[in-house]
Amino acid sequence: MIIAERKPFEEVKQEVKDCKKLLILGCGTCVAVCMAGGEKEVGLLATELRMANKLAGKDVEIGEATIQRQCDREFIQPIVEKAKQYDAVLSLACGAGVQFVAEMMEPLPVLPGVNTRFIGVTQAEGMWAEKCLACGNCMLADYGGICPVTICAKGLLNGPCGGSNLGKCEASPEKDCAWELIYARLKNLGKLDNLRNFREVRDYRAHTSPGRVVNEAYQKAQPEATHSK
Ligand code: SF4
Ligand code: SF4
């Protein structure tokens, strides 16, 4: 999932300082799980802003809403009319969600309330860890399911740099050395021979920006599906 963190309150206050009617819009998927932008966080931020405005003697109407995903048209569309009643939307979705909402609500200003950090997992309660850089050419099969592109601080594909200390990375001593993890995993899997295969340098052409994926089979199926209705 996409991991995000809420922006510092002072930054949020600055972003919305000219609004008289503000809609805070949460997203019920990734950012809800990482506790940055779900329904609960919308409520907390709305309360904080109301209190700050009251203390500052500012009269601002703050509305709250949360949709299931801000990266899908079908979930954004039903909220568009409601959003038009406000001066601006403060989106608590990842950067993709903010942009898609802005596209669908133009010319309404849509502002970001969180900082998007990475693709990751819930490592422990209240802790999230990056696992994938979306390189476009997944090599996990060769490395026992541990990504050297992401987990190794230097992105080394053909073994460790030699700087690890007691299993920790020399670049980030609080983190495990990716190559110690890869070695241990491959050993457990009985696949240490994988390490004999030399990997060419990473093909950066696989990661194009902005990325675009088209499922042609699905696209071709659309007219038929419409026709058969
Ligand atoms: S190899 Fe690429 S796609 Fe696979 S987990 Fe690593 S960064 Fe992600
Ligand atoms: S110590 Fe391990 S994880 Fe850190 S840069 Fe070197 S090989 Fe990569």
What distinguishing features does this structure have?
229 residues, alpha/beta, Rossmann fold, 2 domains, four-stranded parallel beta sheet, three-stranded antiparallel beta sheet, 7 strands, elongated, disordered C terminus, binds iron/sulfur cluster
Explain this structure.
This protein is an alpha/beta fold. The chain folds into 2 domains: 2-118, Rossmann fold (3-Layer(aba) Sandwich), CATH 3.40.50.2300; 133-206, no CATH class. Helices cover 33% and strands 19% of the residues. The protein is built from 9 helices and 7 strands, in the order βαβααβααβαβββααα. The protein has helices at residues 9-15, 30-33, 39-55, 73-76, 80-83, 95-105, 148-151, 178-189, 216-228, and strands at residues 2-6, 21-27, 61-67, 88-91, 110-112, 114-124, 127-132. The strands form 2 sheets. A 4-stranded parallel β-sheet has the order 3-2-4-5, sandwiched between helices. The protein has a 3-stranded antiparallel β-sheet with strand order 1-6-7. The longest helix has 17 residues, at 39-55. It is elongated and about 65 Å long. It starts with a strand and ends with a helix. The model is unreliable at 225-229 (pLDDT under 50). It binds iron/sulfur cluster (SF4) (2 copies). Residues 132-135, 138-140, 147, 149-150 line the site of one iron/sulfur cluster. One iron/sulfur cluster binds at residues 132-135, 138-140, 147, 149-150.
